[in-house]
Description:
binds potassium ion, homodimer, two-stranded antiparallel sheet, mainly alpha, 444 residues, 17 helices
Amino acid sequence: xxxxxxxxxxxxxxxxxxxxxxxxxxxxxxxxxxxxxxxxxxxxxxxxxxxxxxxxxxxxxxxxxxxxxxxxxxxxxxxxxxxxxxxxxxxxxxxxxxxxxxxxxxxxxxxxxxxxxxxxxxxxxxxxxxxxxxxxxxxxxxxxxxxxxxxxxxxxxxxxxxxxxxxxxxxxxxxxxxxxxxxxxxxxxxxxxxxxxxxxxxxxxxxxxxxxxxxxxxxxxxxxxxxxxxxxxxxxxxxxxxxxxxxxxxxxxxxxxxxxxxxxxxxxxxxxxxxxxxxxxxxxxxxxxxxxxxxxxxxxxxxxxxxxxxxxxxxxxxxxxxxxxxxxxxxxxxxxxxxxxxxxxxxxxxxxxxxxxxxxxxxxxxxxxxxxxxxxxxxxxxxxxxxxxxxxxxxxxxxxxxxxxxxxxxxxxxxxxxxxxxxxxxxxxxxxxxxxxxxxxxxx
Amino acid sequence: xxxxxxxxxxxxxxxxxxxxxxxxxxxxxxxxxxxxxxxxxxxxxxxxxxxxxxxxxxxxxxxxxxxxxxxxxxxxxxxxxxxxxxxxxxxxxxxxxxxxxxxxxxxxxxxxxxxxxxxxxxxxxxxxxxxxxxxxxxxxxxxxxxxxxxxxxxxxxxxxxxxxxxxxxxxxxxxxxxxxxxxxxxxxxxxxxxxxxxxxxxxxxxxxxxxxxxxxxxxxxxxxxxxxxxxxxxxxxxxxxxxxxxxxxxxxxxxxxxxxxxxxxxxxxxxxxxxxxxxxxxxxxxxxxxxxxxxxxxxxxxxxxxxxxxxxxxxxxxxxxxxxxxxxxxxxxxxxxxxxxxxxxxxxxxxxxxxxxxxxxxxxxxxxxxxxxxxxxxxxxxxxxxxxxxxxxxxxxxxxxxxxxxxxxxxxxxxxxxxxxxxxxxxxxxxxxxxxxxxxxxxx
Lengths: 444, 444
Ligand SMILES: [K+]
Ligand SMILES: [K+]
């Protein structure tokens, strides 16, 4: 009786709290793991350990240590595992929240989850997690095999194979961790590595529901509206930002300037894709033009897809914001897209999500500026990168003092847990209220 | 017959086009005026003349010349007149647009305007303009008299009286033009000047409808929802930003650091009020901390009131955005405030307005960064200042090359005409459409 009662209470913990506790526990475990003498080449401080663990679990990728040089193979395995658990936890939890919204979760003929989390049996959750794990491992395995073709000739069999596994996991989970201090800049011109890494993080960034749709249906016409918007939006964003990057950096001697045409194209595509929250880089972020840096910050805010391993306000949120604005000027009260209609309730959700994200980003930036000295643009970039769990840096991460590290860790955590918590709140039902007479406010 | 036909066509010009033509004509006239040899101490180029005219007509206040030193009294009178015409045109046009929205325009028992601009008689428009002119001149006259008390002892009767008139007009119209190269920094600690200037630009920034409400009704309970929100929001923003400014700049040796308590308070209040689009300054903008600079940019984007001489997305838009977000998390589909309800249609208007403004600000910033070299923060600040027609600068205005000047002029023009044009589009009626089945997009 007592056991059953406490069990019931446990399952009734608010899901956002479950998420926070899950991530906090993972970070604590990771910190302890990384503090073990066997994990590092030389002993590291608690501050280094907890920062690395937070960055790995939140799949951000900002690093105060050199992952390849300061950690032993055991330390690297711990980091890789934290990335994998953080990414899996994220996808599973996001799908759970969607199911609570009463939305179809992709596998249309196998509904694992009921509309209410309290009614979800452990069996359903296990089955769902199994499907997700299967998809994730398959993608990562294929990725690691292809990356081996690049890494083994360059680094030898053992180091090459491990590097392939590590970067495949890091890429699919949009973690941005690399074993090399200049990220993947050494292979900036290698088309096979670039395309593989891009494919991994773009697929990982599309989100479980989109992957499931594409996997099952194999026909554009049958895809859900969400899948269509994600595929369409991702393609448009990739094309647009590749073009913009090429144009703006073409003559920059520190980035594309000295490269040949082919390399310029490969680097541009990679850099255009990575800010929407992969976080790898093949050129030095601090060398980018200010205009490119601003574009990167915007892409970092947009982020990737729902139920994905990426962060940001999400591509669909961005599209709906754009469409809502256009619809308004066309004097429509709903958005018609791909033969489907999005009503005022969906638009209000987008507004709420965008406003909260914007408020979080601006307050984070504000706190960083108040408590940490440094160049405005570098700090703004670092903050947005942490909030969007992107992991790109203009070099601030290494210079952070204890206060700065604490703030960035907090922002990474909020950036990871926050949007999902908002998703949860959006998932709960509306309450009724007494109606006041209507009022008017002038806005123009 | 022919005359009547052409007359009918003229009155049917789209109002946004009328606004653009009106402002463009004023700028051309002002440019020619400022190019007259009598207007300047030494001959100036067309570029200087057109930039100054654009800044004055759009009541922005960014300056490439020293208004007090480079222009003669005649040149200063031309600038003052352009500010007055730009400000008056703005208020009149904004009220016109509100009347097209079918909204009460303040003077509840004297409706000068019909719901459709085409039905508005010239007599109605004249009557409205007369009321606005009467209010504006009264405020400016009182302001000039009080400012004389400060300026005449310091500058002598003639110069002091002219300075009082010029700064009163500039303040009420939120123009930010000053006859002194360091704006009003000489009088940073003078409470009478500070309070007068603040009162002038805050009242001018509340907007015609609010002034009319307060003038006529003299009781909080009778005020319209819009008036309540504007008064409430302005007060909250003033208190909050004064506190934040004091805290962040308290020990900055280049701003508050060397001042006594009283001066610190006066300067903080003035600086907290001026970014919401007055544009005067009593400390050097380039000496502010980066965190304060970020706060200023946010305040510049928020701006002042509808039907006022100020710019930005407007205080009410900002409040409704905040309330909509809060309402959403309280699971409400409408906003209840001061015993009135704002429905989904109003919230969608706010969303559209905020998105368009944000898009305009970011694209402006982007264009400036691509085409003009310089420090990121300084350029970002200058761009936001131009867009919000604020006029504060971290020193970029003087360094602008021809391209930079052209872009800033364009941004000032768009910042001035754009929001009103959006207001006009929002004022037009909705069309009906065939309804598609509803779709869903995941956002969290
Ligand atoms: K990342
Ligand atoms: K101004």
